[in-house]
Structure formats: structure tokens, C-alpha cells
Design brief:
- The strands form three sheets. Strands 2, 3, 6, 9, 12 and 13 form a six-stranded antiparallel sheet that branches. This protein has a five-stranded antiparallel sheet with strand order 1-5-10-7-8, with no helix packed on it. It has a two-stranded antiparallel sheet with strand order 4-11.
- 15% of the residues lie in helices and 26% in strands.
- α1 packs across α4.
- By secondary structure, the chain is an alpha+beta fold.
- The chain has five helices and 13 strands.
- The chain folds into three domains: 76 residues, Type 1 dockerin domain, CATH 1.10.1330; 145 residues, Galactose-binding domain-like (Jelly Rolls, Sandwich), CATH 2.60.120.260; 49 residues, no CATH class.
- The N terminus is likely disordered.
- 37% of the residues are buried.
């Protein structure tokens, strides 16, 4: 055992800060992976969402099909009509890397079962590491409801190499009796990234994430040049390449969010979200070795509260395998 621990420590020292390049992604951000969940608890939480916390006498959380913007399901947070203490809340959290994230994007539907949404009573919000980055107070409500798409800029302080906690929250703003119930439904939660992290379009010759006149100038400068910036691999820049270039004309991917489909393959052992289980993940695992696990500690692969040889076996069971994030 001592020899194995030495190996883990050595790999950790070699790889920290060197191995792996992460992809910024929210997993199961449209809540399609599990289908219907009648009551979300810590034991029945949606796949990839690592922590659920609320007082079940005041809140409910569930995944249902009554409203959605991507697929057939969405997450509902529900504050019942009862007595609340200020800052009572329901939360659900996912561990995400924000290294290349520009914005957190999501669709949200806010309403009540009998009356207008009162912004002084209940607030929906988004947090990173317990810091609120958005709330529903400034929205424009129509007939007491709001339904729309939200994009929130990610502060540069979060764009480092470590995972962060992305939390959705429904919170009571006052200590009072709520005479009717409040509902917050969430769907299509994703991260818009710098386009270089998810691949430039072939026609984006200037790598600025949009195919425009600047790319056309570069293309024209290489016209009929053998082995130039050709798009058809025919060793010449000609009309065939121009036809390919035209297909992407004025396509702008600067604000596109990456929202994986339900069948997108994620690997539990891919601890740094670079799409492959390798020494970079082993380094992260080594840093957590023999520590307390928990639902949001990525190295606790079997979720038993400890990072130990059981988790190590699961990691090595996926060693060098690649998932959907590989190459993005």
C-alpha cells in the first residue's frame, strides 16, 4: 500500500498545472438524462447534479414534462404556501469548470398558483461558489409571470483551472406566511464558451469566432495558391473552396452555448472534463486521496463519502478511455 501511495503522490507532483485541458460544460442541463423524477432528494437527484438541499416542509423539487425548451423535461423548484423564515431556500448544485466560459445561459419560467410573482417575497437566483451572480428581481413580469432566456457573464475570477459549484436557488426574501405557491422552472442550462475551446469553423481563418469580411480578405490573399488555406484538401485554393467558405458566411458562434444531448458520453473518471481518463485525472484523484468525499467531490466516484481504493478501481476501469468531450 505504501508503494501505491508513493506512486499517487509522484504523479500528482508531476501533473499539477501541466496535464489536461478542461472543457467548460454543464452536464444534463436540460434534465433529459433521467426522465421523470417525482421528488428530488439527495438520493434521487438528476444525473451529474451533485447536491440537493431544501426543507421538504417548505419546498419541493422535481423533474417533469409540463414545460421545456430543449427536449421533454425541465427542473421545477416549488415553494409551498406556508410560513417561511427569511433566506429559507431550495438549491441544486453541479461541479463545473469555468476556464473557457463566457456566459452561463438558461431558460426560466416563473409563476405562482394564485397571483402575481412578488419580487419582495421570493427570488430565483444563480450562484457560483455561494456568490450570487444573478437573481430574478430585475425581470419584467407579464401578468405576474416571466418566461425567457437569460445570459449571465462569468467573472474572470472564476476562470481558473479548478472546479466551481454552480447552484440554482429559490429563496424566501422575508419571514412571512406565503398565501400562495411560487414555481421556478429551469431548462437549457449551459455555458457559452470562447469558440476556440469548442473548435473554430474551418472558414474562420482569423480565429475570431465569426466568418466575415476579415476572413474573406485572408481567403482572397491565398486565391489559387497551391497548399494555401484551402478548405477542400485539394491542394489549391479555388472555387470549390469558395463554395465551402460561402456555407459559413456570417456564421457567428461567439455566443453559442454547448448543451450536450442526453446520449452524450461523459466518463466519471474524467475528473478534469478534457474527454480522456489519464494522468491529469490521476493527479486530481491523488490530491483527494483518503480525504472525505461527498456528493460534489469528483474523486469520490462511488459516492460513499470517501476517496479510497474502491474509487481508484473505478478510475482505472476507464483508464485511457475517451468520451464526448475529447477533442473539443
Amino acid at each position: 500500500m505504501k508503494r501505491q501511495l508513493i506512486v499517487i503522490s509522484a504523479v500528482t507532483l508531476v501533473c499539477v498545472g501541466v496535464c489536461g485541458a478542461t472543457t467548460s460544460v454543464v452536464k444534463n442541463g436540460s434534465f433529459e438524462n433521467d426522465g421523470y423524477i417525482g421528488l428530488i432528494t439527495q438520493n434521487t437527484r438528476p444525473k451529474y447534479w451533485c447536491s440537493v438541499n431544501y426543507d421538504s416542509s417548505k419546498f419541493y423539487e422535481y423533474v417533469y414534462s409540463d414545460w421545456s425548451t430543449n427536449g421533454g423535461f425541465s427542473l421545477t423548484m416549488y415553494a409551498v404556501n406556508t410560513d417561511f423564515v427569511k433566506d429559507d431556500s431550495a438549491t441544486i448544485t453541479q461541479s463545473v469548470y469555468l476556464t473557457s466560459a463566457r456566459q452561463i445561459v438558461f431558460d426560466i419560467y416563473l409563476y405562482t398558483d394564485n397571483g402575481d410573482w412578488n419580487t419582495d417575497t421570493v427570488t430565483a437566483s444563480v450562484l457560483i461558489d455561494n456568490t450570487e451572480i444573478w437573481n430574478s428581481d430585475g425581470l419584467t413580469y407579464t401578468s405576474g409571470q416571466f418566461m425567457g432566456h437569460i445570459a449571465v457573464d462569468v467573472n474572470e475570477t472564476f476562470k481558473d483551472s479548478r472546479p466551481h459549484f454552480l447552484t440554482l436557488r429559490l429563496k424566501a426574501d422575508t419571514s412571512s406566511y406565503h398565501s400562495y405557491a411560487y414555481f421556478a422552472q429551469w431548462d437549457s442550462i449551459g455555458l457559452s464558451t470562447t469558440c476556440g475551446s469548442t473548435g473554430y469553423l474551418p472558414a474562420d481563418l482569423t480565429h475570431d469566432c465569426v466568418v466575415d469580411i476579415n476572413d474573406l480578405k485572408v481567403f482572397a490573399d491565398n486565391w489559387l495558391t497551391p497548399n494555401g488555406l484551402n478548405l477542400t484538401d485539394d491542394n489549391d485554393v479555388n472555387f470549390a473552396d469558395f463554395a465551402e467558405f460561402a456555407k459559413s458566411w456570417m456564421v457567428d458562434i461567439r455566443g453559442k452555448a454547448f448543451i450536450p444531448e442526453p446520449n452524450f458520453v461523459f466518463l466519471d473518471g474524467d475528473l478534469n472534463d478534457d474527454g480522456i481518463v489519464d494522468f491529469a485525472d490521476f493527479a486530481i484523484f491523488g490530491n483527494n486521496w483518503r480525504g472525505q468525499g461527498g456528493s460534489c467531490v469528483r474523486s469520490d466516484l462511488n459516492g460513499d463519502g470517501f476517496v479510497d481504493f474502491k474509487d481508484l478501481a473505478l478510475l482505472f476501469g476507464q483508464w485511457t478511455k475517451t468520451g464526448g468531450l475529447y477533442g473539443l
